[in-house]
Amino acid sequence: MDSRPIQAAIRFGLGPRPDQPLPADPIAWLDTQIEGADTPPVPAGLTAPPAIADGYRIWLELEAAGQPGPGQANPIEQNFQIEAIAALARRIDTAMPYRERLVEFWANHFTVSKRGGYPVSTVIGPYMREAIRPHVTGRFEDLLLAVFKHPAMLGYLNQASSIGPNSPAGRRSGRGLNENLAREILELHTVSPAAEYTQDDVTAFARLLTGWSYERKKEPFGTVFRQSSHEPGTKMVMGRRFEEGEEATEEALRFLANHASTHRFLATKLARHFIADDPPATVTGRIEGILRDTGGDLRAVAAALPRMPEAWAPPLSKLRSPVDYVTASYRACGASGEAVGRLAFRGCSSLNQPYWTALQPNGWPDRAVDWLGPEPMMQRLDWAYDAAGRITRLEPMMILDTALGPLAPDTTRDAVRRAGSPRDAIAMILASAEFQRR
Amino acid sequence: MTHLPRIGRRSFLLGLSALAMSANARLAVAATAGTSQAEDGRLVVVILRGAMDGMAVLAPYGDARYRELRGPIALPEPGQEGGLLDCGGFFGLHPRLANLHGYYREGAVLPIHAVAGPYRNRSHFEAQDMMESGAPERLTSGWLNRALESLPNVPSDRPEVGLAVGLDLPLLMRGPRRVGMWAPPRPVRPPPDLYARMAETLHADPLLGPAVLEGLRGRGYASSVLMEEPQRGGGFMALAASAGTLLAAPHGPRVAALEIGGWDTHADQPRRLEPVLGQLDDGLAAMRAQLGEVWDRTAILVMTEFGRTARVNGNNGTDHGTGGAAFLLGGVVRGGRVLADWPGLSEDRLFEKRDLQPTRDLRAIAKGLLRDHLRLPASAIAAAFPGSSGVDAEDGLLRS
Predict the structure, then answer these.
(1) Which of A202, A394, B279, B350 could tie B236 with a disulfide, CB 3.0–4.6 Å?
(2) Is residue B386 classed as helix, strand or coil in its secondary structure?
(3) Is the peptide bond before A314 cis (omega within 30 degrees of 0)?
(4) Which InterPro entries match (chain A) (predicted)?
């Protein structure tokens, strides 16, 4: 039996759903998903997704009303949850899971986290819809620019408070650089430390980025370039000279986006995510070549990944992250809608990967060892049992066939068949080694 | 395959909406107006998931073939050390059912043997669905829910007249009638036996196997003694006590359902059965204690999806069978006797030469309860158990 259709749904998708037939031609199925236009999820109960100004309005109202007391709901937190739940529900429902995987990959590469406080949690929905989603099959430099210019990122990595010391605002206030975003763009988003940039490069880049900020209290809400905070003069970043002013930012970001070190760094991350924890050099080399030859065309990369033989053997070599595990579990059981998004939101937290709440700017880790541990493992088993208790009336063997098909070994099949109740059986499926992998 | 998503999603949502109500169930029960005393009988159904071995819990020690078939798992006769608790000279209760035996001697327990639903195959899931749907085919609603539809003098704005106790809304209680749910507000963890099975299937995985073993150890389960780990009082006992409390509320639910797993004893049956029997026995005692005087108006039906093989298998266990045992208990029950048309255990009397031959239909017991205890009209009983016109309600289950 050809296992490639189900492998495609597991390796490149988010796990099969009983109401979504497996593709006859896996490659064509994946290609279709990266061709179409992206339609961002609309949170339940809303006619349109909230805009940046909507998030800031809630923030202003909260400031006017004062912080909510104990036991009172925080409207910003509520807004954050509505967005996060809608995004999770979309992952569970979607017929374009490969695209959602790409969204998740790039959102993690360009992490913004609720831990960044209100500057992030008020606008993280717009960040995903405006900065990430439209560009995951576009050019990497456009993605980088959109991310940089989004107030969620400017706020998360403190760019809004970075002021050129020699700018009018700097001279007036005595305030200076905050090099956080400049450093993380170099270290995490583009060339990586392998490029051996220096502290001087970081400082110069931080000077170059000054002026970028966001306005949250009046029109125009969102990103602004404040010339009065911009450090005057030319800057040298990684041996390249940049002039003063707003346009230089774009120039510098496109330079970094197309740097050979960036291609190598991105190739390794992509290969690690989609193919293996320790991807073979042949794979990273090929992805790096595609990035170089196409000028960072992410669609070309997304098309190439499933065409690599290494992506298919051995099957199920990657461990699912908690978010993917929860997503795949509900998909296998045919669940959908906002209510299950809410359950998934709680599930991700209980499995220690709270959604859109990464601990650090480097995002969530992507190797099995990072997620494996005795107690995290137990938490998965506990969650599987809890989840199974809420969905026990599905036929367990059908869930198993949906979720794993020919990839379910006889031992798992027998254990599920011999379980004493549907709940136990479903818990066994979700707990199985095969289901925990992709 | 094609019908699955629709049913699945529907069931899923049903479960969610019921769960959403569960937090308020206790308050709602206390706050609603009641019905008259005469119509205030309580019916509790306890589902034993995994197929309880009727021959182990109600052993036919008087049958000449009992010891031969059961070999190492046969229990000593009444009066011997660790022996069965006698029920009338032919059958004996498992010694771990001391509370139940005490109630039997009071005349409040009616053990029923060689009983089964209409299902003759041996899939847990099909059998449970048919036992709960009350039909020889799978339905999307349960007989107890459909029975609630016809309960007289029940305002339609009182979903908690029917109450599911536990995190799962069993098929038995699903259907047109909205019901309440109550679950203990604490984290839910798999019972030790299920942990053990999960660990078994994960064992071969080089990454996950060691992690789960270490995790179990970290949680205080020694992997070698996991099977012996007694199930702590938690699970069923807490549920049963809660059910008793809720049912005893002044205008509490008329009907409640709860369940307990862990009866699928393919290997090491004596060791695996003892803790769950203990939970069942202790749980029923806790429920009775909480019911207080409401016990006198209560009938509790304890049932399982099918029996197990008459013979012990090669692992000191038993495999999926057909005829099994059920229990009826409560203040209204005419107990203190065993209800059985014993088919015998000789080779030609076994069903397909391997299982206890069922001689009584579980639906007849349930119908008897609906008719004589909840006083439902014949039309309502027929609606609860479609396709069973040939199965008459059992007479004489209750004290007159």
Answers:
(1) B279
(2) coil
(3) yes
(4) DUF1800
3-state helix, strand, coil in chain B (%, to 5): 40, 15, 45
| For helices A322-332 and A422-431, angle between their N-to-C axes, nearest 10 degrees | 140
Residue B14 pLDDT exceeds 70: no
Tokens representing A396?
Answer: 């367990």
Q: What average pLDDT does range B375-393 have in this prediction?
A: 95
Query: A376-401 burial, b if ≥16 CB within 10 A, otherwise e?
Result: bbbbbbbbbbbbbbbbbbbbbbbbbb
Do A353 and B28 contact (CB within 8 A), yes or no?
no
Contact A334 B12 (CB under 8 A): yes
Sign of the dihedral defined by the CA atoms of residues A57, A58, A63, A65, in that order:
positive
CA distance B76 to B93: 11
Q: Select the residue from B3, B125, B219 to test the A interface by mutation, using most A Cβ atoms within 10 A.
A: B125
Give me B316's structure tokens: 């000191």
Q: How far is CA A30 from the centre of its chain?
A: 19
Q: What is the pLDDT of residue B192?
A: 81
> Using an 8 Å Cβ cutoff, are A302 and A101 in contact?
no
B197 and A419 within 8 Å at the Cβ level: the answer is yes
* C-alpha distance from B33 to closest chain A C-alpha (Å): 31
Q: Which residues of A touch B188 (CB under 8 A)?
A: 382, 385-386, 389
- Kindly report the CATH number that applies to the domain delimited by B42-184+230-340+351-384: 3.40.720
| Torsions phi, psi for A164 (to 5 deg) | -60, 125
Nearest by CB to residue B4, choosing from A374, A394, A421, is: A394
- Degrees (nearest 5) of the Cα angle B237, B108, B61? 90
Lookup result for tokens 């009992």: B66
Residues of A in contact with B125 (CB under 8 A): 395-397, 422, 425
Nearest-by-Cβ selection for A336 from B4, B9, B189: B9
Nearest to A382 among B7, B12, B189 (CB): B189
Distance from CA of A347 to the nearest CA of B (A): 13
Task: Give the residue among B118, A133, B163 at the shortest CA–CA distance from B129.
Answer: B118
Cβ neighbors of A410 (< 8 A, separation 6 or more) are none
Question: Predicted confidence band at B118 (pLDDT cuts at 50, 70, 90)?
Answer: very high
Q: Is B1 helix (H, G, I), strand (E, B) or coil?
A: coil
The single-letter code of the amino acid at B376 is: L
Three-state DSSP class for A38? Answer: coil
Q: Where are the beta strands (DSSP E) in B154-313?
A: 162-165, 180-182, 255-260, 298-304
| Chain B residue whose CA is closest to A399 | B4
User: Per-residue pLDDT for A299 more than 50?
Assistant: yes
Nearest to B339 by CA among B184, B51, B110: B110
For residue B26, what pLDDT band results from cuts at 50, 70 and 90? very low
Q: How far apart are CA B310 and CA B324, in angstroms?
A: 10
The structural domains of chain A, with segments of one domain joined by +, span: 158-258, 322-431
Nearest to B237 by CA among B285, B271, B185: B285
Chain B residues in contact with A415 by the CB 8 A cut-off are: 197, 200-201
Instruction: Check CB contact under 8 Å for A393 and B8.
Output: yes
Mean pLDDT, residues A359-383: 90
| Measured distance CA(B376)–CA(B222) in Å, rounded | 52
**Disruptive mutation site among A424, A432, A437 for chain B (greatest number of B CBs within 10 Å):** A424
pLDDT given for residue A392 in this prediction: 57
Which phi-psi region, left, alpha or beta, contains residue A45 (left: φ > 0; alpha: ψ -120 to 50)?
Answer: left
Q: Where are the domains of chain B?
A: 42-184+230-340+351-384
Q: Return the number of CB contacts < 8 Å for A and B.
A: 162
